[in-house]
Amino acid sequence: MNGAACIPNIGAIQRRRRFWPGVISLVLGLAHGAAVVVWSISPLLLVPAAVLLFAGFAGILQSREKT
What we know:
Layout: H1 12-38, H2 46-65
Helix pairs in contact: 1-2
């Protein structure tokens, strides 16, 4: 494999800019999902929680993979 494919394309500042919003999004998604389940609110309100969780995981994975 070509060695250029393994070079990260973002620096430490950009990784932090992806990591912390990802963590915040995960926490908000978990809190929202827990509130919907605990208070027995309409299951359709789990959709925003899923979006937040997806965004959080994507941000954290991007920061870990340095892409």
